[in-house]
Design a protein that fits this description.
With 65 residues, this protein is mostly helical. The protein has a domain of 28 residues. It is built from 2 helices and 2 strands; from the N terminus they run ββαα. A two-stranded antiparallel sheet has the order 1-2. β1 and β2 form a beta hairpin. The longest helix is centred in the C-terminal third of the chain and has 16 residues. It is flat and about 45 Å long. The two termini are 29 Å apart.
Length: 65
């Protein structure tokens, strides 16, 4: 549940098991195992991050397509 604090929405994060994630990534890369995350599904998130960085540097709103 999100809480508002001084006009900012605070969203709690879910605990993760990053060790398991990286073990599976290693297995996928070195031994041909399945990937935990489809690389194509990460593209939209990377586009948002890229737009945010460009926007911060240029101080211009970057439209997403």
């Amino acid at each position: 549940m999100a809480e508002r604090a001084g006009g900012v929405t605070v969203v709690p994060t879910e605990p993760g098991s990053y060790g398991v994630f990286y073990q599976r990534l290693r297995t996928a890369l070195w031994e041909g195992g399945p990937l935990t995350v489809d690389p194509h599904s990460t593209v939209p998130a990377l586009e948002v991050i890229d737009a945010a960085v460009r926007s911060a540097r240029s101080r211009v709103v970057i439209a997403l397509s």
